[in-house]
Amino acid sequence: MTTPGEEASVTSDFVRSYVITGGRSLPSSDDLALHTLVTLAPERTLPLGAGPEVRAIWDLCAGGYLSVAEVAGHLGLPVGVARLLLTDLFEQGHLLRRAEPPRAQNVDRATLEKVLNGLQSLIG
Amino acid sequence: MTSLIRDPLLWVLLVVLVAAVFAVMRARRTNLALRRTKNDLETGLGQAQGRIVQLQEHIASLNARHKDDLADVRADAESSTKAVLKSAMGTLQSLAEEQQLLLDGLLKKYGDDAEVLADLMSVDHTGSQFSRRAKGISVLCGGWLGRREGAATVYDVARSAQGRIKDFDRVSIHAQVSVSVSSKAVEPMAVVLAELLDNATTYSAPGTPVEVNIQAVPTGVCFIVDDAGLGMDQETKDRAAALLSADGPVDITGLGDPPHFGFAVCGMLAARYGFAVSVGSVSPYGGVRAVIRVPESLLSADGPAPAEPARESEGQQTAPQRLAPVPVGPSHVVGKTSGGLPKRRRRQGPIAVVPPPDPAPGIDEQTSESAGEVTASRLGAFARGTQLGRTTNTTEGPDHQ
């Protein structure tokens, strides 16, 4: 008989992801895109019976805005699973979200040259 | 005298006398012969009886030898069957583990696609059930189960067990305690609980709930599995009790066809790792109540595995590692410039990571996790910083984005 000390180590995820979702269907990526930013709404208390993953999200998002992809990465969960948990919290009003910040507009070269000239005349 | 001689009666008497003498002598001879025969026969009988006893002894010894030989042959057959099965199951276990590792990667790789993810999850679910079967048979044949590297909370052990059965969505878990099971007992506990959950879901009507309650008791922790089935009859209870308390190898050929491995696996692992499993009582729903009693020696004082940290207990310690509170938002806007732009006051405090004033000794073990948190906080701070410089509206609720 093999003694426990001789056992090979098992490294696959102990709690499988379909158990974390409870077998529920997953939200599509339109609801919370990878780069959507989420944070904890102020004055919220952790829902009763929150699982370890929800508690981890709570702690992660308390610090400020994080993208959905980052939350999933920190939890070590597939994005879809993290998205489901985030959607739950969002629907319960615990989370705030914000779309990806718009890209900075390119300023035309003439304006930049004017600024440069202005600065040079100020300094030099 | 002459008249006497001539008397015929005398002659008759004489003849009779002679005949009588002959008869007596003959009878005496016959008697003697018969006695001799009787003695001979009695001696023969004694000998025969002695022979019978001898033969009976011989038969008994032959029977005993036959029985021993048969037992030896059976034991040989059983052990060679087990050896073959153990090796075959070992291969299947390795493959199942390999597949689960592969799926861990695939689930993360295709995590953004809800449809692919759902399909991968159903493959993963089938794989987990397959893995449990292989592990059960392997355990009965004296094989390995695989060892988890870290301790896991009782809640995670229950969830892991839940994931290994078919109707996992009927199971609900209520953990009244948040202790961890030590690493060596993590996998066996999960396998045993999975077998009990499999029984509970198989022998109760589809759609009825199966509950796992995890409670602290003076000697450790109990996992209580309640189903709403019909319960077990006395014969099944006796059989289960015998298998659950078996302290030694289990005869795998005696488990029926199709074989019922569940209780045998539970009994085997309970004996090997030192916890107790019982299925004798009735659940509040009228079905079976199965209880795993885990002694304190199998519970861990270490924190839970880093993947799912129990945050409440360490909240106070990690708090100083977080970012210093930074006032954000409209409070900085002190007015408007003549051009209509918001006029801001210089921020009160810099965004900075404040080191813990007095690092607790336990924090070192969680460096990786803390580093992750710090990174997360920094990113959060970065996001806050960018927020300050923008006029994008913060929205709440699902209505707008």
CATH architecture of the domain at 145-300 in chain B: 2-Layer Sandwich
Integer-rounded radius of gyration of chain A: 23 Å
Structural class of chain B: alpha+beta
Enumerate the spans of chain A where pLDDT stays under 50 for 5 or more consecutive residues: 1-5
Helix content of chain A: 40-55%
Instruction: Tell me which CATH architecture of the domain at 26-101 in chain A applies here.
Output: Orthogonal Bundle
Q: Would you tell me the structural class of the helices and strands of chain A?
A: mainly alpha
Oligomer description? heterodimer
Largest sheet of chain A: 3 strands, antiparallel
User: DSSP helix count of chain A?
Assistant: 5
Gap between N and C termini of chain A, in Å?
A: 86 Å
Q: From N to C, what is the helix and strand string of chain B?
A: HHHEHEEHEEHHEEEHEEHE
Main β-sheet description of chain B: 5 strands, mixed
Shape of chain A, please?
elongated
The CATH H-level homologous superfamily of the domain at 145-300 in chain B: Histidine kinase-like ATPase, C-terminal domain
* Biggest sheet: strand arrangement of chain B: 2-4-5-7-6
- Count of DSSP strands of chain B: 11
Order of SSEs of chain A, N→C? HEHEHHEH
The total count of strands of chain A amounts to 3
